[in-house]
């Protein structure tokens, strides 16, 4: 049997599902991957920072042919003690690059770096695989550790590079890596048998299980479920995945199959509305309570934020949501015209969070209703602003106290239509309520269509680019955020319409 060439990432994907490897090799065009650019960028940033954990180091530059990386590593290994980053090794067609390798006189220490804030099971497989490769090459592996981000780290006055010991957590997983060695050998043998058994014209059977989403959502999910009825049990919004697979394994796949199952009433409601093409459900009393809770002036507001694994703003933590933009529609009194106000931070403003907050406070001067969609998000951002700037705490608390959440009627199913597909996300709710209005369609927007793209676009403004390109990005950010608050105004209009 000719062993296939495995990397640590391929090995980990095979731990999840062996068919992934077959599909990647023979049907890569069938993948529908999510955009993982931000995840990869975060991993790169954290990985680069971790290279300095133990002082000076020798870095092995990436080469897709791999051989030069292995050769350079072989040249550096005898020069111990030293620290080698991306040290690369191959044993019997099993390849790995070690993020940080402490190469001591009496052996080596493996440090696998992750941009996560906790140690996940798949990281243990990753680390154990590296132990397998190096130990089989004859190296004395003294220690294996997972290096990950300390979510409680708060950026102080010093650069993060000078606070590495506080920014990173290091967990010794040597005993676990050692305990997994027989399992790894068995897995590698099984992977090779599997790939030899199923050639290009002999596709392996599809087995849908929880592993399709654990530890990562599989890029081939749509391909593997293409023959299921549409919609199906996996389209039921909010249901635990374990419950979905339970029903799938019972043969309850289509919505018709699920209609009389003993399920959460909200799940049955989604199925019932779809199968029986039911008319919208509107709890007029609940909608009226929402409307009656409003006090003028009405402030319809939405924030855009970004987060970074390595905090840049003093007083903030890794992955903390940092507000850089808001849109605000204001109605001062009943019958008054709608005013629109907005804020977009300048990328070179080192105190942009305070500028954001002061601008918002000035535009919400009175105690009217602050209308949001998903109160927990905006209110948590405001609390963090109050922690950063105690002199603004009273104003942040005032704004939070006045918040009214327009998501609640949809979350509680006081207003529901089959077109919402069981979701209360405004990206489903708005087109359901206004299906024929192209101005309310996020897909028609230029450049920025969702919060993730907004964050990425704002960060791109830091890069060198022609001024006209920057202006186009800024314009797209403003248009996107404005639609978010216009959407809430349109919800308010719809609420008034349906109770009259």
Low-confidence segments, given as residue ranges, are none
**CATH topology category name of the largest domain:** Nucleotidyltransferase, domain 5
Alpha-carbon Rg, integer = 27 Å
In terms of DSSP E residues, the strand content is 15-25%
Q: Count the E strands.
A: 14
Terminal residue distance:
75 Å
Give the helix level as a range of percent.
40-55%
**Helix/strand class:** alpha/beta
Mean of residue pLDDT?
Answer: 95
Question: Which term fits the overall shape?
Answer: globular
User: Domains counted in the coordinates: how many?
Assistant: 3
By CATH reckoning, the class of the largest domain would read Alpha Beta
CATH superfamily of the largest domain: Ribonuclease H-like superfamily/Ribonuclease H
CATH architecture of the largest domain: 2-Layer Sandwich
Q: What's the total helix number?
A: 20
Major sheet: 7 strands, mixed
Protein traits:
Nucleotidyltransferase, domain 5, 500 residues, alpha/beta, seven-stranded mixed β-sheet, 20 helices, five-stranded mixed β-sheet
């Amino acid at each position: 049997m000719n062993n296939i060439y495995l990397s640590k990432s391929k090995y980990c994907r095979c731990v999840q599902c062996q068919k992934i490897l077959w599909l990647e090799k023979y049907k890569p065009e069938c993948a529908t991957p999510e955009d993982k650019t931000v995840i990869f960028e975060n991993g790169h940033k954290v990985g680069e920072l971790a290279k300095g954990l133990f002082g000076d180091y020798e870095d092995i530059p990436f080469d897709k042919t791999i051989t030069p990386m292995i050769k350079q590593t072989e040249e550096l290994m005898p020069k111990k003690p030293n620290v080698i980053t991306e040290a690369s090794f191959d044993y019997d067609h099993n390849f790995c690059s070690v993020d940080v390798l402490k190469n001591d006189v009496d052996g080596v220490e493996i440090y696998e770096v992750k941009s996560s804030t906790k140690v996940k099971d798949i990281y243990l497989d990753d680390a154990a695989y590296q132990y397998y490769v190096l130990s089989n090459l004859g190296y004395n592996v003294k220690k294996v550790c997972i290096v990950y981000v300390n979510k409680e780290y708060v950026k102080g006055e010093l650069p993060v590079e000078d606070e590495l010991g506080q920014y990173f957590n290091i967990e010794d997983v040597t005993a676990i890596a050692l305990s997994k060695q027989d399992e790894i050998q068995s897995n590698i043998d099984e992977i090779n048998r599997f790939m030899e058994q199923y050639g290009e014209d002999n596709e392996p059977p599809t087995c849908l299980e929880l592993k399709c989403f654990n530890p990562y959502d599989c890029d081939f999910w749509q391909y593997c479920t293409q023959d299921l009825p549409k919609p199906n049990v996996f389209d039921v919004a909010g249901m635990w995945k374990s419950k979905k697979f339970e029903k799938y394994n019972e043969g309850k796949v289509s919505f018709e199959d699920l209609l009389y199952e003993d399920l959460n009433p909200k799940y049955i409601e989604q199925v019932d509305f779809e199968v029986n093409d039911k008319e919208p459900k509107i709890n007029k009393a609940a909608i009226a309570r929402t409307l009656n809770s409003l006090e003028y002036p009405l402030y319809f507001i939405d924030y855009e934020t970004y987060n970074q694994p390595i905090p840049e703003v003093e007083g903030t933590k890794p992955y903390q949501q940092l507000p850089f933009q808001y849109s605000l529609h204001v109605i001062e009194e009943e019958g008054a015209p709608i005013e629109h106000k907005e804020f977009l931070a300048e990328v070179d403003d080192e105190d942009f969070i305070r500028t954001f907050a002061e601008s918002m406070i000035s535009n919400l001067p009175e105690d009217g209703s602050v209308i949001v969609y998903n109160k927990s998000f905006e209110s948590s951002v405001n609390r963090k602003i109050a922690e950063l700037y105690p002199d603004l705490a009273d104003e942040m608390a005032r704004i939070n106290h006045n918040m009214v959440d327009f998501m609640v009627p949809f979350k509680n199913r006081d207003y529901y239509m089959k077109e919402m597909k069981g979701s209360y996300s405004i990206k489903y709710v708005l087109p359901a309520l206004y299906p024929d209005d192209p101005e309310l369609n996020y897909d028609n927007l230029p450049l920025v269509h969702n919060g993730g793209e907004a964050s990425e676009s704002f960060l791109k403004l830091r890069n060198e680019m022609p001024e006209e390109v920057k202006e186009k990005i800024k314009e797209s950010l403003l248009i996107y955020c404005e639609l978010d608050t216009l959407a809430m105004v349109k919800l308010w209009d719809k609420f008034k319409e349906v109770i009259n």
